[in-house]
């Protein structure tokens, strides 16, 4: 059996998932279809891991070596605008990040390896829920993923529209940023807009806060370090002639180094305290570190590029991305690497998380080959 022979049925499988997307921890139909397909291969299948996660294991030979391959299953809360014949049947839910393609590629690799069996050891196929901001990787790890399914190394990859199809790229060290989010509540007292002297002005204080926060990275973080702080929401007020009692300021911080992450959080809290003191408002900060940085081991990144070199354009990524990925939780628990799989078609590419995005089915075979090559290389007989 050739890998290319698997593609046509996997395209149908992928498009069925696309038409029936499910949000984080609600991937029941997806998980059931995946588990059913894996059982048909004669694999040992475990469900309900970390919520709706599925893990299947394939052992060949006598070696105690092992490898994990992960694909994410969840969709996004976005209204699809592709107009495709297999567009989402669920209003407001959409596979706008290509996880339907990730599932199809890993399933294709399981099918191929179950038949070829050209390795010595155990391959674990990990289908993860809730990557999109809900930390499904952490849920699986906390549910005993690597205790129940020990892995020498674990790998995952994501389709990458900015890279041409047929390209595989990764790097040692940081590849995706840590993601923090903050919500700051600025409380005055509220008053008539014609009598501002009667209340601390929450809008003015929030404006000062936003200005200071936007200079925090440039003035508090060393130029050699890398970080992004963005304000994404400001909410307050309901009338032209009323000073609101409260204003909410929301944003995100992206970093690669925990020391920089610590410095930004501490500085943000200092700025908030200073604004409160200067304005007479009450300022409350809720700061949450929800995804760690995704840090590849040098050896695993090197192995991934070597595994791809025989069939793809294998490139060392020159720099990490400031987007985040909860695969970082798995890499905190097990050595491994995160990989970008090019899917660009050579024109104006629709980015991830866009209402008109669709996974490029032409790279299914490349993704399957990458999974298979990683297994056969790491578990060489």
Give the secondary structure arrangement, pairings included.
Layout (H helix, E strand, L loop, with lengths): L3 H16 L8 H13 L3 E6 L3 E8 L5 E7 L26 H18 L4 E8 L7 H7 L2 H4 L4 E12 L2 E4 L2 E4 L1 E10 L3 E2 L9 H12 L2 H5 L6 E9 L6 E2 L2 E10 L2 H22 L2 E10 L2 E3 L1 H11 L4 E4 L10 H7 L2 E9 L19 H15 L3
Parallel strand pairs: 3-4, 3-5, 5-16, 6-15
Antiparallel strand pairs: 1-2, 2-4, 6-16, 7-14, 8-12, 8-13, 9-11, 10-12
Question: Do you know the CATH topology of the largest domain?
Answer: Aminopeptidase
Sketch the topology as an H/E string, one letter per element: HHEEEHEHHEEEEEHHEEEHEEHEHEH
Q: How large is the radius of gyration? A: 23 Å
Number of domains: 2
* Dominant shape: elongated
Mean pLDDT: 96
CATH architecture descriptor text of the largest domain: 3-Layer(aba) Sandwich
In order across it, which strands form the biggest sheet?
1-2-4-3-5-16-6-15
Structural class: alpha/beta
Query: Class of the largest domain in CATH?
Result: Alpha Beta
Strand content: 25-35%
Helix content: 25-40%
What is the distance, rounded to the nearest whole angstrom, between the alpha carbons of the first and last residues? 20 Å
Pick out the low-confidence regions.
none
Number of helices: 11
For the largest beta-sheet, the strand count, sense and barrel status come to: 8 strands, mixed
Assign the CATH superfamily of the largest domain: Zn peptidases
Strand segment count: 16
InterPro entries: Amidohydrolase, Bact_exopeptidase_dim_dom, Peptidase_M20, Peptidase_M20_dimer
Pfam family, one: Peptidase_M20
Domain Peptidase M20 dimerisation: 182-273
Protein name: M20 aminoacylase family protein
